[in-house]
Design goal:
Elements (H helix, E strand, L loop, with lengths): L1 E9 L4 E4 L4 E14 L5 E13 H5 L9 E15 L2 E16 L12 E10 L4 E4 L2 E12 L2 E12 H10 L5 E15 L2 E15 L13 E2 L13
Parallel strand pairs: 4-6, 10-12
Antiparallel strand pairs: 1-3, 1-5, 1-7, 2-3, 3-4, 5-6, 7-9, 7-11, 8-9, 9-10, 11-12, 12-13
């Protein structure tokens, strides 16, 4: 399982490129997110989610203006490419369904922003805990697309109590269901700003039979956390 639903505003007009025998494009959606800090103070940020579309889905993005509210349903797509002799990695939502959400003077669609992703996959390695209250793991999500079996490797970060349970219960090869949101952080490398994207989980569940040394495969919910880019380990 690999399913994402994103509702956000178009950052700029879509970029179209050669997709072989069909139309192809990429664009970014600005998704507003609000939460409360540990001190119960309201916070807000904008998450920029990369989206790719092909064929008739891409055709819908022609002449769509910056700022338009767009609904996308699709799946996480990861991969790599080489630039200046350096391997770089990307994360984008491959749109399977797309809708332009029109607004009029009498109808405002603000506050419809949505950033949800659900995954089922197997852990590629044991979870890693780079610091207390944070656990990271990678899921191998298998899917069938256009006649080919593919594997998408998705980085997942968990926080607080959810993190503690993941570190204690999960292990390499376990089949896990994850619900969360797409999250991007910035970092500097060789004087340039780079971006790393993955999923911040707010719920997970182990779907396979647990090893005897482990105690529980029930649903685990995340406690609230502050959005600090340096804390996210992908």
């Amino acid at each position: 399982m690999n399913k994402a639903i994103i509702i956000g505003r178009l950052g700029k007009e879509a970029t179209f490129f050669n997709g072989g025998d069909q139309t192809a494009c990429r664009f970014q959606l600005a998704v507003k997110e609000t939460w409360k800090s540990k001190n119960n103070e309201p916070q807000e940020r904008t998450e920029w989610v990369n989206v790719a579309a092909l064929g008739s889905v891409a055709e819908q993005m022609k002449r769509v203006a910056k700022g338009t509210l767009v609904f996308v349903q699709g799946s996480a797509n990861t991969g790599s490419y080489t630039k200046n002799d350096e391997t770089r990695y990307y994360f984008e939502i491959r749109a399977r369904l797309l809708r332009i959400l029109p607004e009029t003077g009498r109808q405002s669609l603000k506050d419809l922003d949505q950033n949800e992703i659900a995954l089922v996959g197997r852990l590629g390695q044991d979870p890693v805990t780079p610091k207390e209250g944070i656990t990271h793991f990678s899921l191998a999500c298998n899917e069938y697309f256009k006649g080919n079996d593919t594997t998408q490797w998705i980085s997942v970060a968990t926080f607080n109590g959810l993190s503690d349970n993941a570190a204690r219960i999960l292990s390499k090869g376990r089949l896990v269901f994850v619900e969360g949101k797409v999250r991007t952080r910035k970092y500097d490398k060789d004087g340039q700003t780079r971006h790393a994207t993955g999923v911040v989980a707010h719920r997970w569940r182990a779907l396979d039979a647990r090893p005897k040394r482990q105690e529980s495969d029930e649903y685990h919910e995340s406690a609230p956390y502050d959005h600090v880019d340096d804390d996210i380990p992908f």
